Each structure stands twice: as C-alpha cells, then as structure tokens.
Amino acid sequence: MFAGAGAQAAPRATHTVPIGVSVKSLLDTARTRNPEYAAMQFEVDAAAARAEGAGRLPDPRLRVEWMEITQAGEQNPTLLPSRTGSTVYTLMQELPWFGKRALQRDIADLDIQGAKGRAAWAWADIAARIKVGFAQWVSVHENTRLNQEILDLLTRLEKVAQVRYAAGLAVQADAIRAQVELTMVKNELIALENEQRMTAARLNMLLARPADAALAAPSPLHSPPPAARLDAAVLLARARANNPQLASDEARRQAAEKSRDLVLRNRYPDFSIGVAPTQVRNSIRDWGLMLEVSIPFQQSTRRANEREAQAMVAAAAARLEATANQLQAELAENISGLDAARRTGEIIRANLLPQTEL
Fold this sequence. Notes:
The chain has helices spanning 2-9, 23-33, 35-52, 100-166, 172-206, 232-242, 244-264, 299-357, and strands at residues 61-67, 86-95, 271-280, 283-293. By secondary structure, it is α+β, with helices and mostly antiparallel strands. Helix 2 (23-33) packs across helix 4 (100-166), helix 4 (100-166) runs antiparallel to helix 5 (172-206) and helix 4 (100-166) packs antiparallel against helix 7.
C-alpha cells in the first residue's frame, strides 16, 4: 500500500533528448550556452538601454554668484548669503532646436533594430555551422558503421582465402589480396575515428562544452526538399524579406539618414532658458529671466560634418546593396549544390548502392 501511495505522489519523469542525437538538441543547447550569441544579445540589451535616454533633455545647470562678499572691506570674505551684498541663483535648461530630440529617438530605435538583426544573423550563422557539423556527425557515424560491416566481411573472406589456399584450391595471391584489403579498411577506420573526434570537438565548441564531452549517436538525416521547392525567385523573395543581415543593414542605412538630418539641424541655434532669483540678506528681492542662443558661426566645421554624414549614408546604402548581391549569389550557389546533391543521392540509391551491396 505504501508503494502504491509513493508511486502516486512521485513526480512524472521528464525525458530529455540526449545532446547529439538530433540537430534540435544541438540547437537548443547552443541557444542557451553559445557565448557568441550571448554577446550579441547583450549588445541588443545595451542598445535598448541607450534608447531609454535618447531624446531626453540634458540636465539643468545651477549657478550661484556671491556679490560683495567683503561688504566694501568692512568684513572678512564670506559665502553666507545673509552676510553678502547679494546672492544670485541662476537655474538654466538647454533646449535643442525643434526636431532634434525626435531624430535622436529615431536613431536609437534604429540602432536597436540593427542590433537585433546582427544578433539574429549571428544565430543564423551559428545554427548553420551546427547543422553542417551534425551532417558530418551523421556521415562519420554511418561511414564507421559501413566500414565495420566491410571489416567483418573481409575478415571472413580472409579466413576463407587462407583455408582455400591451405587446401590447394586458391593461389597465395588471393589470401594476400584479402589481407591487404583488410589492412586498408582498418586504416580507414582509424581515420574515421579521428574525424569523429574532430567533428565532436567542433560541435562542442559551438555548444560551449569541453572538446572531449560525449555526444550521443545521431539519428538519420531528413530527406532533402524536392526539386519543386527549389524555386530561386521564391527563395530570393523570402530571403529579401526575412534575412536578418539585410534587415540590420537596412536599419543602419536608415539610421545614417536620420543622423544626416540631425547634422543638418545644427544649422539652427540651440537655446538655454533660465530663471535667476537674487537674495539680499534673508529675502528674495529680485527675479530675472535669461535666454541664451548658440550662434552657428563655424561654417567650415559644420559643412565638413554634413559631408561626413552624407558619405555615411552613401556607405550604408552601398553596404546594403553589397549584402543583397552576396545573398543572391550564395542562394544560387546553395540551390545548385542542393540540387546536385539530390540527383547524386538518387543515382547512389538507384544504381551504385545495389551494385555495391551485390
């Protein structure tokens, strides 16, 4: 009875997929442990933190002026407001030209978008390397299994050849040939064992695990997509709409345009307004208002800054175009490679594999 009660109270066991058995197990581990992806996420957090203060007014300034601190030589110098001739308190607040704060907020928001795009692109690159590594992991395991089967077969053949040679039914060359083939397969197994360790080390590096950490035996790969899904125009349109690197470069281009607009706003003056109460003895006697205006006098410096901003816009646009061209070229290359791999696989399954097994 106690055993039954304990079984009912025990929590349900959770089954976790061993790392290495599927590409999903590798991706899930890398998403939480890969330091490169974590660094990009921290950059997104940093951009979001910077955006919180973008477009805010600068801190106000307080200025205190003590007048007649010696009372025409009648007393020792003092800073006590009640013993000076007068004390002027000036509180100033800077006010940027209209539209500057909105542009600063827009630039900060675009910086966040760019950081998110770079983080997504970093993850896409990490995921691609993991998927390639997993394909190699499956390949080396399958090759090891096949070579082990061939080794067992050749071992039996080598014994048969020796028996036939001893019985005078075969020449010595047959036994030697079987021994040579057996040695070659053993050497290939050694090379596969080394490749297996190297592939595991590369995968563990992407997962931020020790290089010699154990990985589970992989499950078979999924079949490649059919040729009907390899439409270059459709895939290119999807890439242009969803590629994170393109999104990051587009955000950078827009941020460069906003920065240029902000630089152009420097043609107009900024303001500072203030209020200045004057204390005489123990009471406030007078009030004053202040207005400061910056004079955009340095034309050469401002023109140079405007040219720099315009050049940055052109550079961002060129970088976006280069990324789009590279994306199109890589997509065409990958489609061609995938199609070639699919046709090669069909030939191997239909012709080479049956012949080899025979």
